[in-house]
Structures are given as C-alpha cells and as structure tokens.
C-alpha cells in the first residue's frame, strides 16, 4: 500500500493549509481519530451518546496524563516503565498516611505525590549519575514498587478513606467530567511548557543533541532528573484520580504494566520519537483517545475484546512507520 | 594585564594524556592563533578554559584572578564564550532557538520567540550570513550555515573572552571572510580577548596578533605574527613529525 502524497492542485491557500497540516506531527493521529469516530458512529448510534462519551473520557484521561509525562521523558531521551506501579502505589500511600498515621486528607494526597516525585528522583539519579540505562533502572524500580505494594497492602483492595470523601473525591476524579477536566488542564499546561518555555526547549535539546546541550551549558542531568520526577508525579496523580473515580483503592489499578505501556503507545502513536528530541503532548492525548475509542467502539459494535490488542499493535507499528514517512516529508518539504 | 592566563594546565583521559603542561596568555583586544596537529589537544584546551572539562592540574586566571570553573554556565557568567568544533547545534530546534540556546529571552515564564526571531534575523544580516528563514530546523542547514549560526551566537553574546575552535573549517571563501571580518571587528573593539584555532596558517596569520603551537600537550612556540611566517610554521610542524618518526625508529 502506498500513501498518495500529491498536493491538491487547488488554490494556493488550500495547498499552504495542506502542507502546514502534514508538517504538524499530530496530523496523522488526528486523521485516524476522526476516521474512527466517523466509523463507529456510522456503525452504532450508541457511540456519540452522553453516557458513552463519558466512558471514553474516563478511559482516556488518566492514561493520557501519564502519557504527557512519558512524552517529556521520551523527548529528553529516556523512558520510564515503572510509572504504572507508581500510579498503583500512590493511593495506598495516601491511605496509609490517613488511616495509619492520622494525616489529614489534603496533606496526605500531597505526601503521596511527593513520595512519587521521590521515586522519579531516584530513577533519575540512578540513570544519570550511575549511568544505568533508564529502561533497566525503571524495570528494577517497577519490581521494587510492586513488591512494596503487595507486601504493604497484602494485595487487598481497601476503601477510600472517609476523610477524602465528599467534595474532594468528586473534584479529584469521581465527578462525571472531573478526570477529563484534569486531563485537559494537564495537556494544555504541559503543551505550553514543552513548546513555549525554557524547560521544554532544554528538554528537546537534551534529547536531540546531548553533547551540544552540555556544551551550551545546559545542566543535562538536571533536565533528565526533572522529567523523571514529572512522570512519576503525574503517574501518582493519575492513580489517585482513578482510585477516587472507582471509589476504591485497588492494587490492580493500572493493571501492572498496562498504564505504562498504553501511555507509551499513546505517545508513540501521537508522534513522539523514542530516539528523543521530538514529541508532542497534544499528539499523545490524541493517541490515547484513539486507543480508548478503539477499545470502546469494539465493545459497542459487539466485536470481542480479544482482537483489540492485535489492532493496538498494528496501530503502534503503522503510526510509527507513518511518522517516519511524514517526518521525511517534513524535512524534504521545507522552505 | 592579561584577560586570560592558563598556567601549567594538564588533562588526562584515562591512560591518555591530552595536555601535559600548558601555559598561555591573551590580552584584551588581542587575537591568539592556536595551531597544532590533529589530536594535539587544542579542543581539549578550549574545553578546559570554557568550563566543560576540569583540568587535572594547573590553574586559569581571568583578569589575573584565579578561577575554578564549575561549569560552562559558570565560565559564561565570567564572560567566557565558545564556538565548539562540533558546533553544538540541536537539529530539532529552529535556527533562532539554537542561536539563543540557554540564554533565551523570556516574558515571564514564556519564551519571547518574537524577539529572539527578530534578533536572530538582525544578527545574521549584520554578519552578512544568508539564511532565508530563521524558523527552519537546524537539520536543514548546510555545514557552512551551521558554522555561521554557531559563530553568531557567541559573537553576539557579549563575551569578553571568546574561544573559537576551527570556526573556518566548513566555510567557503566568502563565508570564511565573513568570519574573519567579524573577528577583526571584535578585535577593533579592544575589549575582547580571542583565541582562535585554525589549520589554515595563512588565514590564521591574517587575523592573529600572536601564534602559539600546541605539541605533545605543551605550548612549544609562541611568537607575534609579525615575527613568523607560513613557511616557518609549516616547517615547525613537519619537523616535529619527522623528529618523532625518527625517535620511534621508523
Ligand atoms: N572526552 C574525551 N575522552 C577521551 N579522550 C579524549 C576526549 N576528548 C579528546 N580526547 C583525546 O584527547 C586527544 C586530544 O584531542 P583534541 O580533540 O583536543 O585534539 P585537537 O587538537 O582538537 O584535534 P583536531 O585538530 O583534530 O580537532 C585525542 O587523542 C583525543 O582522542
Ligand atoms: Mg579539535
């Protein structure tokens, strides 16, 4: 199969819009997202209903938040596969603080986020100072946290502590559109950070040309460690949100590696390169949306969930190939 | 008073000794040409002076005050700026972001892209460098254009000690002249000390007040340009090579 790249022969404006569009990294995934929505809506009238959109939003939001962090880390040239476990552990940390140590609700939540940031700090320091590849560092951290989670929780789910029930729980995930609102807030904020701030520019530089960034005086390790901390903190936030939404703290939140891998898949489908130096937060959101829509749509049209992973695998491969192809087009079609 | 003085600097990489005992000085308004074979340690010396490498021995004095350079940033805060041989551009970033990398203009927390774009265009125009669009990614530039960007960003950085590691390497005749003119302009300002590494002795002699040769980790020759010539410099370099070959029994 070959993709037609003929620019439409229409007026110059349309052509400029077209080139402008394909030059955007998010282009391919946006097209796929729209196509899927159209397809599923045509297949079943249930698709674009209020209730189903809420389902999709709830499936998209927490993992998209993790994916935002993953994008930053991938752009800086590293990876974190322990983040899903941080997501599972964070609600327990809150629960331990509240129910065992009598910490009030808000400080307990902040403490959980802080401890998550600490996990990121450790990941970052081991990777940058001790020069252990981040894949290995975070693989070790994954099992470490898993062990801590299982031994401290005895693998039992627990109820949400009563002191966070009420407004706090509603605002932080239980409300109908709470998780989506947080997700959009996070996406917009970090899109700005990546594209319009010094931190974003330096993150791109570190992943794009590490020696060059060092020579320019950028504290390369600091940037990387910061991004490790960012992923872990966002992971904890997503885990807390999920616990508030399902109204229970479950060691299987995120299903072990599922959150991590889905977030990485979302980032990659959205146009973030694993090699570092380029990536987009909006693309990751769209990538996550595509994955959520696929799963949800399959359910609705009554296809068994089994081939879903097959489709997800293909989606990752096809989008990666498309990204390679598009980025070559972008390079070639410059001014 | 010397703007920059290097005393007894040594630098080893594991078993390899890149610099043994380097002594060097440059005054304000002076241009020092640093010559030497490939692998002689010129870039290493530059990277010690700009805070990238820590020296294993010796000291560095800025305005006759000994300094311990903690980082490139720290050196930069003392007015030391560098054009690296490997250029240090980030392919994924636009030309103007590269020009202001790690000294970005900002409005609050946000990058002031408009200002940086305008300044980049102005600086490149002033230099006579022809880059049609400063918003393109650096990956799209030619070798000479990349060189020009790297030079421009240091030249317009208000540096008081400027280190140029082979700024003419990938340059065509016209572009090389642009760089040499820039160096001449800076020298005329009288407050900048410049060290320039070059392999083309004719070009080096054109702008330099003094020439030094780095051989086997030491400065073996240091003389005003007026008192030497391309022929003498070439002879010195070749003689060193022949001597070492004979010593090795080749
Ligand atoms: N980071 C490093 N680690 C290990 N060895 C290094 C490093 N940097 C330089 N060297 C070695 O130090 C020696 C001097 O290298 P340097 O780059 O300073 O040479 P140079 O004089 O700049 O050469 P050229 O004219 O080719 O640029 C070489 O043998 C090089 O291999
Ligand atoms: Mg060199």
Automatic annotation (TrEMBL), chain A:
**Record membrane topology:** Multi-pass membrane protein
**What's this protein's name?**
Simple sugar transport system permease protein
Q: What compartments host this protein?
A: Cell membrane
The superkingdom of the source organism is: Bacteria
Transmembrane domains' residue ranges: 29-49, 55-74, 81-98, 104-126, 138-157, 177-194, 261-294, 300-322
Q: Which InterPro entries match?
A: ABC_transp_permease (IPR001851)
Gene Ontology cellular-component annotations: plasma membrane
Q: Which GO terms describe its molecular function?
A: transmembrane transporter activity
Lineage summary: Bacteria, Bacillati, Actinomycetota, Actinomycetes, Micromonosporales
From TrEMBL, chain B:
Q: One Pfam family this chain carries? A: ABC_tran
| Native source organism of the sequence | Asanoa hainanensis
ABC transporter domain location is 4-241
Which Gene3D superfamilies does UniProt cross-reference here? P-loop containing nucleotide triphosphate hydrolases (3.40.50.300)
Task: Identify the InterPro entries for this entry.
Answer: AAA+_ATPase, ABC_carbohydrate_import_ATPase, ABC_transporter-like_ATP-bd, ABC_transporter-like_CS, P-loop_NTPase
Judging by the UniProt lineage, the source's domain of life is Bacteria
Annotated protein name in UniProt: ABC transporter
Question: Which GO molecular-function terms appear in the entry?
Answer: ATP binding; ATP hydrolysis activity
- What keywords are annotated for this sequence in UniProt? ATP-binding, Nucleotide-binding
């Amino acid at each position: 199969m070959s993709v037609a790249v003929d620019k439409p022969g229409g007026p110059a404006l349309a052509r400029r819009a077209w080139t402008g569009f394909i030059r955007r990294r998010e282009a391919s995934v946006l097209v796929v997202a729209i196509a899927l929505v159209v397809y599923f809506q045509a297949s079943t009238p249930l698709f674009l209903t209020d209730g189903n959109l809420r389902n999709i939003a709830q499936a998209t939001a927490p993992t998209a938040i993790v994916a935002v962090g993953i994008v930053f880390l991938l752009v800086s040239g590293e990876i974190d596969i322990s983040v899903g476990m941080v997501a599972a552990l964070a609600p327990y940390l809150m629960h331990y603080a509240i129910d065992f140590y009598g910490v009030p609700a808000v400080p307990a939540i902040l403490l959980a986020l802080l401890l998550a940031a600490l996990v990121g700090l450790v990941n970052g320091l081991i990777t940058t100072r001790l020069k252990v590849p981040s894949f290995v560092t975070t693989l070790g951290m994954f099992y470490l946290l898993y062990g801590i989670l299982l031994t401290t929780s005895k693998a039992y789910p627990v109820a949400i502590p009563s002191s966070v029930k009420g407004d706090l729980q509603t605002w932080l995930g239980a409300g109908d559109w709470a998780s989506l609102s947080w997700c959009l807030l996070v996406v917009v904020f970090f899109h700005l950070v990546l594209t319009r701030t010094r931190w974003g520019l330096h993150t791109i530089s570190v992943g794009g040309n590490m020696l060059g960034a060092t020579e320019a005086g950028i504290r390369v390790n600091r940037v990387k460690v910061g991004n490790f901390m960012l992923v872990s903190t966002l992971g904890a936030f997503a885990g807390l949100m999920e616990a508030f939404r399902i109204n229970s703290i479950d060691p299987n939140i995120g299903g072990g590696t599922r959150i991590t891998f889905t977030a990485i898949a979302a980032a990659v489908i959205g146009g973030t390169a694993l090699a570092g130096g380029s990536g987009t937060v909006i693309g990751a959101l769209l990538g996550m949306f595509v994955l959520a829509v696929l799963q949800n749509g399959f359910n609705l049209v009554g296809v068994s969930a089994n081939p879903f992973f097959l489709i997800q695998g293909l989606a990752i491969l096809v989008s990666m190939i498309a990204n390679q192809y598009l980025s070559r087009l972008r390079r070639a079609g410059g001014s | 008073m010397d703007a920059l003085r290097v005393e007894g600097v040594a630098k080893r990489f594991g078993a390899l000794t890149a610099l043994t005992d380097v002594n060097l000085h440059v005054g304000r308004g002076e241009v020092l040409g640093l010559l030497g074979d490939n692998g002689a340690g010129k870039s290493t010396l530059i990277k010690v002076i700009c805070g990238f490498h820590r020296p294993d021995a010796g000291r560095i004095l800025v305005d006759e005050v000994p300094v311990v350079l903690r980082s490139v940033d720290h050196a930069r805060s003392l007015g030391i700026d560098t054009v690296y041989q490997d250029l240090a551009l980030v392919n994924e970033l636009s030309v103007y972001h590269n020009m202001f990398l790690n000294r970005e203009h900002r409005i609050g927390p946000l990058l002031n892209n408009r200002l940086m774009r305008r300044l980049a265009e102005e600086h490149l125009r002033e230099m006579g460098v022809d880059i049609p669009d400063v918003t393109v990614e650096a990956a799209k530039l030619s070798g000479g254009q990349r060189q020009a960007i790297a030079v421009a960003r240091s030249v317009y950085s208000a540096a008081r000690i400027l280190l140029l590691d082979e700024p003419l390497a990938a340059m065509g005749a016209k572009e090389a002249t642009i760089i040499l003119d820039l160096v001449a302009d800076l020298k005329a300002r009288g407050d900048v000390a410049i060290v320039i590494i070059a392999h083309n002795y004719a070009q080096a002699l054109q702008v330099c007040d003094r020439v030094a040769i780095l051989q086997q980790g030491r400065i073996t020759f240091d003389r005003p340009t007026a008192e030497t010539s391309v022929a003498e410099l070439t002879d010195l370099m070749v003689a060193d090579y022949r001597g070492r070959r004979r010593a090795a029994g080749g």
